Structures are given as structure tokens and as C-alpha cells.
Amino acid sequence: MNVLVIGGDGYCGWATALHLAKQGHRVGILDSLVRRHWDLQLQADTLTPIAPIQQRLRRWHALTGQTLDLFIGDICNYEFLIASLRQFQPEAIVHFGEQRSAPFSMIDREHAVLTQVNNVVGTLNLLYAMKEEFPACHLVKLGTMGEYGTPNIDIEEGYITIEHNGRKDTLPYPKQPGSMYHLSKVHDSHNIHFACRIWGLRATDLNQGVVYGVLTDETGMDELLVNRLDYDGVFGTALNRFCIQAAVGHPLTVYGRGGQTRGFLDIRDTVRCIELAINAPAQPGEFRVFNQFTELFNVLELALKVQEAGRAMGLKVEVQNFPNPRVELEEHYFNAKNTQLLDLGLQPHLLSDSLLDSLLNFALKYKDRVDEAQILPKVTWK
Amino acid sequence: MNVLVIGGDGYCGWATALHLAKQGHRVGILDSLVRRHWDLQLQADTLTPIAPIQQRLRRWHALTGQTLDLFIGDICNYEFLIASLRQFQPEAIVHFGEQRSAPFSMIDREHAVLTQVNNVVGTLNLLYAMKEEFPACHLVKLGTMGEYGTPNIDIEEGYITIEHNGRKDTLPYPKQPGSMYHLSKVHDSHNIHFACRIWGLRATDLNQGVVYGVLTDETGMDELLVNRLDYDGVFGTALNRFCIQAAVGHPLTVYGRGGQTRGFLDIRDTVRCIELAINAPAQPGEFRVFNQFTELFNVLELALKVQEAGRAMGLKVEVQNFPNPRVELEEHYFNAKNTQLLDLGLQPHLLSDSLLDSLLNFALKYKDRVDEAQILPKVTWK
After folding, report:
1. Side-chain half-sphere CA neighbours of B246 within 13 A
2. Which of A84, A150, B29, B104 is the most buried (most CB within 10 A)?
3. Low-confidence ranges of chain B (pLDDT < 70)
4. Residues above pLDDT 90, as percent of chain B
5. Residue A152: exposed, middle, or buried by beta-carbon count in 10 A (0-12, 13-18, 19+)?
6. What is the per-residue pLDDT for A335?
7. DSSP string, A278-325
8. Which of B117, B153, B197 is the closest to A169 by Cβ?
9. What's the pLDDT at B351?
10. Domain B2-374 has CATH 3.30.1490.20
11. How many angstroms separate the first and last alpha carbons of chain B?
């Protein structure tokens, strides 16, 4: 199948592009490379030295004989987008191409506006391009579990059946997103749902949890294929950050009490979930929503797991409760469903000691690259 | 109270600004005047000849001695916005300043993007300005009943209490908006809700129905204060359009079967609802939602009422079912709640024969200004 991976130079996108190529799909990568630019601006850098995209692709070609198409540009530029689609003729589009950091979106007004405009307009352009010229194409769009917030009832997958005053309907699940970034994903979901209802497009919205890990079968093949691994306060996420903090002897940064429960998954499951969604596409007119995570953890629990694994390796690991830079509940009910991807055949890589060991060793290997000034959060929600 | 009316040169905004001034508030109008520009671009024009804003305000001053402050510019320009707010020092902000036509938003991709970016960024700028410098100010934001779509259960005011798997929570009411414009209002609602939850701002979201009528006590005082009255296929809305169609002998344009049920209200109730919301502000941190309409009608029912009133005046009035340019259910359940504004003291002007007579006579007075080429819809949802 012709699969275009938008944002294919990023953490999830790069791993996904290679995985899909390995499965025999014809893969194209479309990326504006703006994430590398933001890293420069924030003076943050991935733990792992990532090669330029052209070099990555040349190495992949040398190892596998496969050529991935490359389109460098911004999907907010419609002329560029439609020209790329015409050339590539996608049957499925995997859309990772958004600003994906909550703290980035909360830096200030400009970053909030940038995040919402960039994400909403990029997705709108994609929907119009599909409507006009690729109506049968399947959009696989990355959403986030953070769209739901922390309601006091079970979180279903995208929809909920409500009985009210003697009548019943199945409606979009109510959303209470916790940052300007998470809001942008809620906006996208509504826009995509509309495009499916009104224009008959087909889409799968993957409400992904927090991804951890770095190696996949493909990105682990060669140093030049190595994936990015963020540990800074803006783009880094809980478990990955904890492992890197443990490697450099920085106290693990638990925000507030640490009772915040979230869905998590291994990056090897991310790439597999995308594959499963592509292979069993949504129907025309269908806006399908999957919750893409494999396990629920709270933040303190994760920190303690990393501490234990680190100590077993002889590392000194302290866990510290830092003032929470975010405004969020630190103790709350959280029970989210995730059966649809399992039903499609996902066999989860549950969080294990061996994964933690591997991630800690990976962090130790590159620990001289860590800039400790980037670890503590600098962006607050207030 | 210092009340800034954003979009105060528009149909609802102008009537509201004068009404609030009459009630003794110190009123400022902030408007980019872009709606007049769009009229020129679409070659559409209000039935009524509306004076330039400066002339309107001079006439109001001559009649009442009151001076309204005027700020001409775009709230998407943050520097302009914050400078205006600093000068005016608002205690309440009434925000009508958005692209408000569903067909306009569905013209093409550019108009969809324009609508969502304009509406979302304008409101984000306002929220940031309030957070930074006017945290006690009360935002009264115009939403639309169209945010809800046509669910098969009763529509509550903004929130719904859901019992699910033995637990219970009160959550934002699920939204299924029917155009790129309606989507933009849903995005706004989520953004404003966030600003109240996280920053403690106070806001009232008025999910308004379809407004009809043209005269209020204030706009009826003088020809130079006359309000706009749109009849074209882009900015015109059901009942107003029908009266003008009846006046010029054009068949009443019922889209599809006409079973589409919506909430409606008289413009005299619009201005009163805003006044009520301002006088009983939301609490700090509260995102309050009122459904702002007084009666439910379906479109065919309204056309028949206009036909009857027109015939009683000796007009020949035909009702015709036109192919529906929109994608929407033409027969559906619709039961929306609207008790909160009534509880605050709203005494509705229900749709009456005398209102229809008055509106028909008004349409007859200006019927030579009608361009019949503007009546039929040219924008389709597909």
C-alpha cells in the first residue's frame, strides 16, 4: 500500500515509517523539519545524535535496498501538500505532523496560537486535499489520550452511549483537554469527524498515550537510523525522562504528588498499532477512534520502577516531588478502555525490567550528551 | 459598567451596544469592519442602508448625549487588542467579533481556514489579554445552538450529567457541529472552558439560536441607526430571509423537506439576554453556558407562518422546497433546554403576527434594494 507518513522525521513518525517500509508498504515521508528548528530555538537536543533525514534514508536504502520518497515542506502550505499527494498517490496517510508538546504550547500566547493554528490548519488542508482528490484514502491521525482529561467516569474509545430522560444516543465522548496543545487535538478530532460525516471521508483517530522506549527492530539496525530521545522539560515525557535522569544522577522529577494516572505504551507498540490501523481501514464515512495505550500507570509509580531498576544496576537514584508546573488533578479516577487495537491483534510489549534495563543502558551510553540545565521544567501553566 | 462590544458594528453587536448604552453602561465598540468588506466581495448587501459606524455613533450622540468609544481594528492583532483594552478598561467584554456564517465557511478551503483561524485566534488573543491584564473581567461570548447538532437526546445547557458503569460525572455536552463555522465555535468553547478551569477566568458562553427581526427600541429611533438585515444566501438566515422573499414575490426557500428544527429568538431578546448575562456575571473560574433562544420551530413551519401573514397583507407568497445545499438531517428529534436566561428574568418576545407584519412591512419599505440574484444559495456542503 502507498503510505505517506507526515511528520516522518519525528520520534514516532520515523520509527513508524521504517516499520511500515519493512512490512512491504511503499512509504513516503513528508516533514517540514520544523521540530529540529524548535530544538535549536529552545536550545534543547535529543539524547541520541540523530542524522539528517537524507542521511537516514540513504542508510536505510544501503541496508535494505528500499527507497523512501521524501517530501520536505509544510502541510500548512496547501500548494506544497497537494503537489506532494499528487506525486505520491497515497492510499493511507499517517498524520504525526503536528506540534506535539503541551509545555511548548503553554510557553506564551505566541506558542499557543502557533500550536493551534499549525495543527488545525495542517489537518484542515489534509481533509480538503482528500475531499478534492483522494476521497478513498484512509487518514490515520494521531490524537492523544490527553483529549479526555480526567473524568470521573470510565473513558470509552471516542464515543459514549448516553441514556438521558428516557432517550438514548451514542455521541462523541466529552473532552476536557489540559493544555493548548491538547485542545488543538480536540479541535482536530471535531474537524475530522465532520469531514467523515459530511464528505464521507474515512479516518482513524488514534488517541495515543505517553510513548516510551527508543529502539524498534528497524531503528536499532544502525547508528545512523537511531531515533530521537527527548529528555528536556518541553519535549521529554515521563518514563524516558526518568531513565535519563537516573543515568546522570539527577533526582527523578515527579510533578506534584505524582498520582497523575495516564496511559502508556512502548514505541514498538506504536508502530504496530499504526500498521494494524492501516491494514484494517475505517469504512467510507466512518470516524473511528482507538485509544492507543497498553497500560495505565501513575507518575510516582513509574519513578519508583525506574529507581528500582537503576539501583539494581548500581545507580544512585533519588525520587523527588517537584512543584507541579501544570494545573492538573494529582489524585483522580482514571479508567480508560483500549480493547479495539487488541481486537485487531495488538500483542503489547508490557513495561518490563528488561525494557527498563535496556533504556537505562541506552541513556548511560549517551549520558555525556545530557545538558542538565534542560531537565527541570521552565514552562508553567499559570 | 465598562462594557466593550467586539463586533459592535454587526447585526447583533450594534443593537446590543446601543441597548447597553441606553441601560446606562459605558459602552465601547471594537470592530474590524471586515464584515462590510466581505459584503463587497460577495456582492451582497444588507436590505437596509446602514450608515458608516462613525456616522451611526455621531447620530446616537446627537440623540442621547452619549459618546461610545470606538476601536477600529482586528482582535487577531494582539498589539491592537491589548492597547484598546488598556485604554477602555473593560469590566465585561461581549464578543460578537467572529465570522458567523456557515455558508461562508463552506465556500472553499480558504474560507474554512479563514473562519477557523479568525475565530479561534481572535478568541485566544482575548483570553490571553484577560489572563495577563484583566483577570476579573467577565467574558460574554457568543456561541451557537448549532454546536450541538441534532442529537437524539435532550440538549442541556452546555453540560450533561452522565451515569456510566456505576459512576457519575457532569461533563461538557457532546458537540456535533454542522459546518466549518459551527466547528470554530466548538473550538472556542473548549478554549474558553480551559481558560476558566486553568486560569480562573470567568465566562458566559451564549449558545444563540437563529435571530430574527430588525428593530429594537434603540435602532428604531432614527434612520441613521437602522440595523443591517441580511437576505442573501450566505449571511441571511431563515425567518428574515422568508419575509424579504415574500416582499419581493420570490418563492420562500425551504431547504429540503423543511423538517429541520432550530431554536429562534427575536433580536429584542438577544440584546436583553446580553444585558442579563452582564448583570449577573459568572463566578471566577466558572465557564457558564446558556442556551439563548426562546422558541423551537422547524423551517417549513416558519415558511407557512410567513406565507399566512403575507397573504393576509395581500401579498402572493409561494413556499417552495429547494434542493438542500447543506448536509443535515431534515427530520430529527430536537428538544433543547433554555431555562437559565428565563430564570435570570428574560421575558421573551414570542413570534407573533404583529412581529411578522412589522418585518414584512419593513421588507416592503426597502424592497427596491433587493438583488434577487443574491437570494438562492450558491454554496453547497459537498
Report:
1. 31
2. B29
3. none
4. 100
5. middle
6. 98
7. HHSPPPTT-EEEEEE-SEEEEHHHHHHHHHHHHHHTT----EEEEPPS
8. B153
9. 98
10. no
11. 46
* Active site amino acids of A: 144, 181, 185
The Cα angle at residue B350 between residues B346 and B355, in degrees rounded to 5: 125
CB–CB contacts below 8 A, A to B? 138
| Rounded distance between C-alpha atoms, residue A181 and residue A187, angstroms | 10
A193:B186 CB<8 A: no
Q: What is the pLDDT of residue B45?
A: 96
Q: What pTM, to 2 d.p., does this model score? A: 0.98
Count the residues in chain B. Answer: 382
Question: Residue A291 and residue A308: Cα distance in Å, rounded?
Answer: 29
Q: pLDDT digit string (tens) for A153-208? A: 999 999 999 999 999 999 999 999 999 999 999 999 999 999 999 999 999 999 99
- Residue B142 sits at φ, ψ, to 5 deg, of -85, 115
How far is the alpha carbon of A143 from chain B, nearest alpha carbon, in Å?
Answer: 15
Which of chain A's residues have a Cβ under 8 Å away from the Cβ of B155? none
Q: Can you tell me whether residue B311 is helix, strand or coil? A: helix
Closest CA to A228 of A14, A6, A3: A14
Q: Are A118 and A183 in contact (CB under 8 A)?
A: no
**Which residues of chain A neighbour B190 with C-beta distances below 8 Å?**
175, 177, 183, 186-187
pLDDT in tens, B131-158: 999 999 999 999 999 999 999 999 999 9
Cell 463552506 belongs to residue: B106
- What pLDDT score does B88 carry? 98
Q: How much is the pLDDT for B142?
A: 98
DSSP per residue over A31-99, as a string? E--HHHHHHHHHT---SS-PPPHHHHHHHHHHHH----EEEES-TTSHHHHHHHHHHH--SEEEE--S-
Q: Cβ contact (<8 Å) for B109 and A128? A: yes
B-chain residues within 8 Å CB-CB of A174? 160, 162, 171-174
What pLDDT does A180 receive? 98
Is B144 a residue of the active site? yes
The catalytically annotated residue of B11, B185, B216, B231 is B185
Q: What are the backbone dihedrals phi and psi of residue B236, each rounded to the nearest 5 degrees, phi first?
A: -70, 150
> What is the model's pLDDT at position B372?
97
Cα–Cα dist A276/A90, whole Å: 17
Going from N- to C-terminal start, the domains of chain A cover 2-374
Residues of chain A contacting B125 with CB distance shorter than 8 Å: 109, 113
Short-list B43, B47, B40, CA closest to B248: B47
The one catalytic residue among B48, B123, B144, B237 = B144
Q: How many CA atoms lie within 13 A of A331 on its CB side?
A: 1
B341-to-A12, B10, B344 alpha-carbon distances in Å? 48, 23, 5
Give the pLDDT score at A83: 98
At A183, is the secondary structure helix, strand, or coil?
helix
Among the partner residues B121, B154, B178, nearest to A165 by beta-carbon distance: B154
Residue A255's pLDDT is what?
98
How does pLDDT run across A39-66, given as a tens digit for each residue? 999 999 999 999 999 999 999 999 999 9
Nearest 5°: the CA angle B327, B332, B334 is: 115
